[in-house]
């Protein structure tokens, strides 16, 4: 038994030694540092974006072992039974933009071709639907008149007719118009918004919207050599004054308005230059300022003293609506609009499609400033505010005695605007300095840049509805304060302004373009 015990111990020791040696040998085999595969890897994170109506931008994650990629497009066919276009793409060419046809759903597949002789990868697939083709070119100054419009497109294109609505107007394109890429449509109505569709048979090749110029029939035409103040004084309530292009230097200073009136430029592209400030008095219900260049400097270039661009002049007066549309307003030392007359009410103040620059350049007021007067609505839409109220608040609405806490509400909207260097030089200045007890505020689709402003530190300022805004160099608007943009929809992207110093706020950031953020005039 004793011998058997020693024999068993010896066998056990030999077995353990063998296992140890075997383990060491397996540890020294080569480490696998490359997957053995028979084909290239498929492109990952494939994305498609429609650009400029009919182009599709493609991008994906690349690998070093791909020589190039094959991209195939199938038009309105998810099975790829018919290939519309095939393109070879190098990794260095990404993102790549491919020109396609309009109003088509494209199925797009991409595969990698190996640089190591392996089989091609499997396909990665994405879809994209192009918009209507756009071969209309930009409107040229002077092309759109009151009763006719000259439309232009890429010369020698295959087109058959142009339709316009409203009015169900059809213009059959002649052979000569087709070659030139120009046609003039007559019989239109002044001050009417039209949509023109360029067709080849039933296929759309371009869509263009425009508004015809003002028809001067039945209106008062004013020339640069006229005394504008006198023309306004002579006008009847409800009159429309149409100002021809030019520099109106005969009169500079304050114009008192005691009747409802529309003052507008004859053309959108050549705005008459005025050197006036407007004061509203009893008798005026509505005021429309359209397609004007309004300067806070007199004819000699001197800034008018204590000049509010627009002010409410009389106490205990009910005013209707003020509209500033398609204008340039600049170089006023005080507010864009000022309401500090007790007991007075203004139904609404609207700024649209307007550029306002260097307004409220002193410390004597706020940019939009309602103190003892009540305003029902402030609407800022599709406009640019450049270097305004740099040391003061942007919108101020005080608790006007006799109106606040009586059931009245002030509504404020900022939509599709670009605000640059606004309320920017003094810490703690506010975009929304609102103390009227009942207020409702919406701020959306706008760019705020180069400002140290906050939204509000007032408990009475309601929590605004924020949607799709972009803040660049404007951290005070998205950091903790009484009111700030705490939404999940804002971005902090560099807009890539073309030249902010000269007032060119054309954006280059593609994400902001895609989402239509900021004043639409700067999105190309």
Brief synopsis:
The protein is mainly beta.
Give the tags.
8% helix; mainly beta; globular; ten-stranded parallel beta sheet; 524 residues; single chain; 14-stranded parallel beta sheet
Structural notes for this entry:
With 524 residues, the chain is mostly beta strands. 8% of the residues lie in helices and 38% in strands. It is built from 4 helices and 37 strands. The strands form 6 sheets. Strands 16, 18, 20, 21, 23, 24, 26, 27, 29, 30, 32, 33, 35 and 37 form a 14-stranded parallel sheet that branches. It is globular, with a radius of gyration of 33 Å. The termini are far apart. 34% of the residues are buried. Residues 1-9 and 15-33 have low confidence and may be disordered.
Helix fraction? under 10%
Name the beta content range: 35-45%
**Number of helical runs?**
4
Q: Can you count the beta strands?
A: 37
Instruction: Tell me the Rg in angstroms.
Output: 33 Å
Main beta-sheet strand count, sense and barrel state = 14 strands, parallel
- The N- to C-terminal Cα distance equals 100 Å
Low-confidence stretches: 1-9, 15-33
Shape: globular
The overall pLDDT average reads 93
Structural class: mainly beta
């Amino acid at each position: 038994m004793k011998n058997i015990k020693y024999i068993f111990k010896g066998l056990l020791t030999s077995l353990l030694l063998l296992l140890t040696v075997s383990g060491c040998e397996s540890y020294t085999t080569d480490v696998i540092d490359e997957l053995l595969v028979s084909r290239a890897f498929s492109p990952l994170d494939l994305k498609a974006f429609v650009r400029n109506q009919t182009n599709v931008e493609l991008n994906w994650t690349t690998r070093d072992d791909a020589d190039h990629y094959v991209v195939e497009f199938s038009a309105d066919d998810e099975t790829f039974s018919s290939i519309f276009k095939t393109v070879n793409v190098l990794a260095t060419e990404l993102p790549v933009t491919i020109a396609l046809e309009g109003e088509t759903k494209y199925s797009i597949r991409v595969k990698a071709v190996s640089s190591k002789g392996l089989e091609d990868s499997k396909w990665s697939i994405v879809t994209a639907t192009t918009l209507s083709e756009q071969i209309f070119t930009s409107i040229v100054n002077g092309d759109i008149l009151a009763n006719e419009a000259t439309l232009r497109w890429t010369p020698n294109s295959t087109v058959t007719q142009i339709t316009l609505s409203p009015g169900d107007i059809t213009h059959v394109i002649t052979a000569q118009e087709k070659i030139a890429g120009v046609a003039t449509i007559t019989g239109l109505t002044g001050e009417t918004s039209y949509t023109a569709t360029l067709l080849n048979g039933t296929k759309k090749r371009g869509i263009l919207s425009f508004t015809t110029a003002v028809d001067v029939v039945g209106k008062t035409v004013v020339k640069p050599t006229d005394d504008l103040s006198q023309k306004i004084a002579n006008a009847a309530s409800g009159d429309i004054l149409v100002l021809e292009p030019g520099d109106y230097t005969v009169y500079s200073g304050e114009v008192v308005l005691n009747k409802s009136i529309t003052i507008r430029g004859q053309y959108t592209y050549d705005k008459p230059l005025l050197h006036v400030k407007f004061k509203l008095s009893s008798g005026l219900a509505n005021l429309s300022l359209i397609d004007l260049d309004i300067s806070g400097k007199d004819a000699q270039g001197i800034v008018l003293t204590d000049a509010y661009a627009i002010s409410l002049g009389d106490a205990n007066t009910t005013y209707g609506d003020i509209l500033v549309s398609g204008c340039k307003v600049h170089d006023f030392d005080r507010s864009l609009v000022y309401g500090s007359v007790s007991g007075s009410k203004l139904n609404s103040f609207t700024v649209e499609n307007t550029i306002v620059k260097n307004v409220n350049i002193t410390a004597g007021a706020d940019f939009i400033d309602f103190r003892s007067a009540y305003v029902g609505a402030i609407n800022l839409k599709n406009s640019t505010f450049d270097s305004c109220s740099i040391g003061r608040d942007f919108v101020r609405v005080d608790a006007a005695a006799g109106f606040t806490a009586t059931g009245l509400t002030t509504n404020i909207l900022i939509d599709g605007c670009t605000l640059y260097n606004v309320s920017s030089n003094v810490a703690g200045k506010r975009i929304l300095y609102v103390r009227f007890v009942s207020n409702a505020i919406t701020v959306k689709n706008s760019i705020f840049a180069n400002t140290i402003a906050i939204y509000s530190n007032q408990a009475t300022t309601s929590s605004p509805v924020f949607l799709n805004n972009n803040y660049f160099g404007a951290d005070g608007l998205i950091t903790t304060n009484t009111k700030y943009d705490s939404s999940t929809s804002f971005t902090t992207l560099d807009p890539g302004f073309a030249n902010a110093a000269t007032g060119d706020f054309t954006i280059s950031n593609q994400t902001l373009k895609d989402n239509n953020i900021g004043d639409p005039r700067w999105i190309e």
